[in-house]
């Protein structure tokens, strides 16, 4: 009788160990928990990104807002201004002054001209000063420029009167001894009011002060000088030297370039080459030049802030890796892979950069709106700028955290557990 065979149990096939997984929700929660361990340091780390992104949004917003204001001012002033220069001496060394005596009347017949007139700085004898009369702080005399200007030229400068009025066509046609002072000149001469009917002496020639100007929109030199009628200046000191006089022409909107083309012929049909009309610059060129300069200057500042923010995030993330070496070893011992560790720290730096980008975007928008409201401007912000700013902050955080995350992933588990 054969003994019964004892069946040995078949060895079971070991089941494969399922790789550990790190769900996106777990990654985000771990990143937030790591940030909240030291909220103060996290806030200071994100501050660099806040400043960089905020500067980026504010720079582009303020540049766009300023560009719109430049366009408006160009339309109101520069686009309606034409300057005609006397270049007769350049064309003919024996030529006299390029402007005729009735230059104001000739240019005024052109369609689209609102105000126009000839002006020049009077060449006085050496040592000639301007003093107030009968008494005043400037009674001893002040070295002040004297500008000869026809009434049309004075109106074309768009002055704002503090007191009195401008001299008119009658005063100019009769060569009256009247003057208009700039506010700073009046203060230097001790003239504070016109109620006492003050006068000034240019050398030994008396002039009644008709008005005091405290601001002009064109020809700022009027504020620093004594302005007298053109005919009066010619009677006392002679006509201007060749090339010294210019004509200031104020036009209606859109007529400046046409007036610039017609002015030399209208003033000197016999020798139009004696005069050179300077039209307003192209508004597109002006705007592109100004905005380009502003963009380059301030975007460089924004880039510096972003670099500083990236360095701050990288430094803080690297310190966090060194401080949490034991935690990294424990996670690796429990099954976490190296790329899990890298993703965790990369997420922390990305969240810091993203939060900094959002806060910086809001800060930049508030800065643009605040400046615009304070200056009574219309704020201009391109949607692409607002949409791209948080993404820039996120990208800055991810790039800054790349090296610390790789270093954390390469930490050997056994060495990490020793800490």
TrEMBL record:
Keyword set, alphabetical order: Cell membrane, Membrane, Transmembrane, Transmembrane helix
InterPro entries cross-referenced by the UniProt entry: ABC3_permease_C, MacB_PCD, Macrolide_Exporter_MacB
Every MacB-like periplasmic core domain range: 42-262
Occurrences of domain ABC3 transporter permease C-terminal (ranges): 300-413
UniProt region (Disordered), positions on chain: 1-21
Keyword Transcription appears in the UniProt entry: no
Name of the protein this chain belongs to: ABC transporter permease
